[in-house]
């Protein structure tokens, strides 16, 4: 009877934990759907208003019509990015992503990242300086890590002043490989700093086109490949992202 009692207690505790986890999952799902709905509602409303204006005013000046079309294209790009990012995050959350882990040099990852952000860095006159040993490597999924670091560098460029520089410094020791991404932009307030990796969070210095999901996706990818990320920032002086991959 004593053994039976102990087993029943264990089963009860286990069932309570399962029920609690299920309740939390439902709350998270509800909150996520609410966030997604809110994020999609604003750009879709804007698109509808602009399309109505174009359709109703047949004599609309060409320059105004073109501005509307450019804004519609921008909103569609934002929606596309949002949906793709949500799908990727969902796959990572459900452990359905099969990461292809292999030895990759950090130099090759950074080189691909620079190509991904080449256009926006040129438009703002941002000079990206890279420093590190070309032979230093990490074990990760190259494609996903390129995406994660691209999102971070893109964020740094967006918050940098024009004709400023951005530094990417990496080095390897016996414990881990560290990549530091440093900008000299507007910085992040102390109020926003603890929340920048939260999904759909937009700080006071966020750009109008930001959907608040890029950094959350980067964090999820990095942590899924034996890494972790932290950030330091000071208003008016810039921000430093530090990514460390444990040597395995």
Note down, in words, how this protein is organized.
The protein is α+β, with helices and mostly antiparallel strands and 248 residues long. It has 6 helices and 7 strands. The strands form 2 sheets. The protein has a 5-stranded mixed β-sheet. A hairpin with a 3-residue loop joins strand 4 and strand 5 (176-183). Helix 1 (2-56) runs antiparallel to helix 2. 22% of the residues are buried.
Layout of helices and strands, plus pairs?
Blueprint: H1 2-56, H2 62-93, E1 102-105, H3 106-116, H4 118-124, E2 127-131, E3 137-140, H5 142-158, E4 165-172, E5 176-183, H6 214-224, E6 227-234, E7 238-246
Parallel strand pairs: 2-4
Antiparallel strand pairs: 1-3, 4-5, 5-7, 6-7
Task: Supply database-style keywords.
248 residues, two-stranded antiparallel ribbon, globular
Write a short abstract of this structure.
The protein has 248 residues and is of the alpha+beta class. The protein is 54% helix and 19% strand. The chain has 6 helices and 7 strands; from the N terminus they run H-H-E-H-H-E-E-H-E-E-H-E-E.
Note the overall shape.
Answer: globular
> Major beta sheet, specifics?
5 strands, mixed
Q: How far is it from the N-terminal to the C-terminal residue, by CA?
A: 48 Å
Q: Rounded to an integer, what's the Rg over CA atoms?
A: 22 Å
Q: Which percent band covers the strand fraction?
A: 15-25%
Helix content: 40-55%
Averaged pLDDT, please? Answer: 85
What is the N-to-C succession of helices and strands? HHEHHEEHEEHEE
Instruction: Identify the strand order in the major beta sheet.
Output: 2-4-5-7-6
Count of DSSP E strands? 7
């Amino acid at each position: 009877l004593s053994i039976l009692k102990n087993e029943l207690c264990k089963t009860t505790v286990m069932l309570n934990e399962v029920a609690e986890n299920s309740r939390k999952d439902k709350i998270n799902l509800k909150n996520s759907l609410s966030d997604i709905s809110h994020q999609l509602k604003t750009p879709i409303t804007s698109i509808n208003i602009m399309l109505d204006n174009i359709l109703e005013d047949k004599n609309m000046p060409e320059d105004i019509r073109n501005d509307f079309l450019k804004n519609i294209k921008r909103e569609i790009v934002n929606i596309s990015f949002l949906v793709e990012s949500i799908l990727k995050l969902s796959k990572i959350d459900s452990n359905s992503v099969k990461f292809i882990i292999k030895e990759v040099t950090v130099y090759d990852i950074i080189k691909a990242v620079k190509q991904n952000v080449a256009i926006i860095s040129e438009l703002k006159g941002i000079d990206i300086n890279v420093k590190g040993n070309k032979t230093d490597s990490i074990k990760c999924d190259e494609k996903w890590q390129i995406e994660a670091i691209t999102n971070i560098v893109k964020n740094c460029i967006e918050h940098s002043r024009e004709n400023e520089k951005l530094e990417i410094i990496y080095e390897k020791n016996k414990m881990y490989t560290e990549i530091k991404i440093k900008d000299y932009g507007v910085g992040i307030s102390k109020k926003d700093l603890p929340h920048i990796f939260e999904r759909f969070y937009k700080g006071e210095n966020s750009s109008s086109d930001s959907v608040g999901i890029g950094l959350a996706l980067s964090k999820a990818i990095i942590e899924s490949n034996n890494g972790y990320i932290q950030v330091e920032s000071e208003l008016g002086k810039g921000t430093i992202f530090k990514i460390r991959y444990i040597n395995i």
